[in-house]
Design goal:
Mean pLDDT: 81
Structural class: mainly alpha
Distance between the termini: 32 Å
Strand order of the largest sheet: 1-2
Number of strands: 2
Radius of gyration: 32 Å
Largest sheet: 2 strands, antiparallel
Order of helices and strands: HHHHEHEHH
Strand content: under 5%
């Protein structure tokens, strides 16, 4: 945002300086010294605007690279780490129920039913199943933000531009990438079987 504001500000100054120089050039009463001063100012401000344009484009490239890395590399790694923590927690919980059952089985027979209940609860806990159930309950249709687009300075002056041979305009169409949606759509929620939903969600996680 800062580089965009600087770019707009520098372009506005250069645009005004250029228009002032063009106006003075068409005025026969303008003295050569004044005309030279206006030309020098127009040249300097345009150089600053061109550099600001380059800085703005570099900032966009850097921001888009960071955004892409976050959603395609860093965020999946974080989610995998959280999943590992959750798997360890479920494994610990399952083992605690099993230990409780062992303790209960060593007590008088009146506690037998309680021990069997603990064993049943432990048996019902499956790490992949619990993870998948959580995913199905919480995942929605999520899309990563689209790349930030270059927004050129707007002016009514047809003679003004910051584009040069070594500073061509960026192509927003080249920076756009197909947006990948994750999760299940409303149609898929109705149409797919439970097994197909699980398979599709697993394929999303694997990407």
């Amino acid at each position: 945002q800062k580089t965009k504001s600087t770019y707009d500000s520098k372009c506005k100054d250069a645009d005004s300086a250029q228009q002032a120089h063009i106006k003075a050039t068409s005025d026969s009463n303008t003295k050569p010294k004044k005309l030279q001063e206006l030309q020098t100012r127009a040249t300097k401000t345009l150089d600053s605007a061109v550099q600001a344009d380059k800085d703005y484009q570099k900032a966009l490239d850097k921001a888009n690279e960071r955004q892409k890395r976050y959603y395609e590399v860093e965020m999946p790694s974080i989610l995998e780490l959280f999943q590992t923590f959750e798997e360890e927690r479920i494994h610990f919980l399952k083992s605690m129920f099993e230990r409780a059952a062992i303790v209960q089985s060593a007590l008088p027979s009146v506690y037998t039913q309680c021990a069997e209940d603990y064993l049943q609860v432990s048996s019902d806990i499956t790490i992949p199943g619990d993870i998948q159930e959580y995913i199905e309950e919480n995942i929605g249709t999520v899309a990563a933000p689209t790349p930030l687009e270059y927004q050129p300075y707007e002016t009514d002056n047809p003679n003004f531009t910051t584009q040069t041979e070594d500073n061509p305009p960026p192509s927003n169409s080249e920076t756009k990438e197909p947006t990948r949606n994750y999760g299940l759509t409303a149609e898929e929620e109705v149409r797919l079987t439970q097994h197909e939903k699980v398979a599709m969600l697993k394929s999303h996680l694997a990407e």
